[in-house]
Amino acid sequence: MQWASWSAFFNMGGYAFYVWFSFGFTALCMIWEVISLRKRNAQALRLSKLLAQG
Amino acid sequence: MIPWFAWIATIFAIVGLYIGFAIAPTDFQQGEAYRIIFVHVPAAWMSMVIYIVMAGWAGLGLVLNARLSAMMAQALAPTGAIFTLIALVTGSLWGKPMWGAWWVWDARLTSELILLFLYLGFIALQSSIDDPRRADRAGALLALVGVVNVPIIYFSVKWWNTLHQGSSINMGAAPKMAATMLLGMLLMALAFWMYTVAVALMRVRCIMLERERTSDWVKELSLNELSVGGKA
């Protein structure tokens, strides 16, 4: 294990902002992509159901 | 099939992050800031790999006049654009503490920015043409022309004197980094790869549903899926 304590881990040797921003941004992008695709899928199904019912 | 890829991606990401944060040692030059590598390099790799695969599908769709190939290309573009953006943003967050600048007009950075514009151009061109088959052909041409940019990105650190460091991993040479760092990076790259497959399949499904709205199979599917509690 590399870290003496949790606070040392969160501090990232003084680079906390850069490191956590990088990982946070990446995670947000991926979560956003998955959520928007789920919405799009549900929307597409709803629309074609409307069409199917005439 | 989508949940499988999603689960594999999650597992690889958890193990990769654990190795990257808990096991990989501190870099003797860059301190802890180097840990950005565990998202930066895999994202940059995926931005190039996805472009090549996208151009391949687009080219196949053009030559064989195959609709599904064109839809695959269309499904990959947004994910490629997102990974390009991630590579640029995390690179900027890495450049600031190490080089003292958020951005420099270095060959590597500039060619990666051009890649982002190629993705966005492809998406914009496709969505601006109403007839899907014409949109596919126009997009395919753009994707194929833009493919020349990928080797430029890859070799930019060799061809020009760049501020961006050379590659740490070369085919045919021993990697210039600690084994645990390399392992963490490769696991994260695999996680991103599996993630890409999962979201591209999700998106191609949406595209098919939207394009084939009037076909019988989509109508049946929508009636069945939404009648069981609307879970989809």
What tags apply to this protein structure?
heterodimer; A: 54 residues; mainly alpha; rod-shaped; B: 232 residues; Four Helix Bundle (Hemerythrin (Met), subunit A); 76% helix; globular
Walk me through the topology.
The complex is a heterodimer of chains A (54) and B (232).
Chain A: H1 6-11, H2 16-53
Chain B: H1 2-23, H2 37-64, H3 67-99, H4 107-128, H5 132-146, H6 149-159, H7 179-211, H8 216-227
In short:
The complex is a heterodimer of chains A (54) and B (232). With 54 residues, chain A is mainly alpha-helical.
**What's the order of the H and E elements of chain A?**
HH
The end-to-end span of chain B amounts to 14 Å
Oligomer: heterodimer
Question: What is the makeup of the main sheet of chain A?
Answer: none
Which series of helices and strands of chain B comes N to C?
Answer: HHHHHHHH
Give the rounded overall mean pLDDT of chain A: 92
Shape of chain A: rod-shaped
CATH architecture of chain B: Up-down Bundle
N→C terminal distance of chain A: 62 Å
Low-confidence stretches of chain B: none
Biggest interface and its residues per chain?
A-B, 33 and 45 residues
Integer-rounded radius of gyration of chain B: 20 Å
Poorly predicted runs of chain A are none
Helix content of chain B: over 70%
What integer is the average pLDDT of chain B?
91
Number of helices of chain B: 8
Helical fraction of chain A equals over 70%
Structural class of chain A: mainly alpha
What is the CATH topology classification name of chain B?
Four Helix Bundle (Hemerythrin (Met), subunit A)
Total of domains of chain A: 1
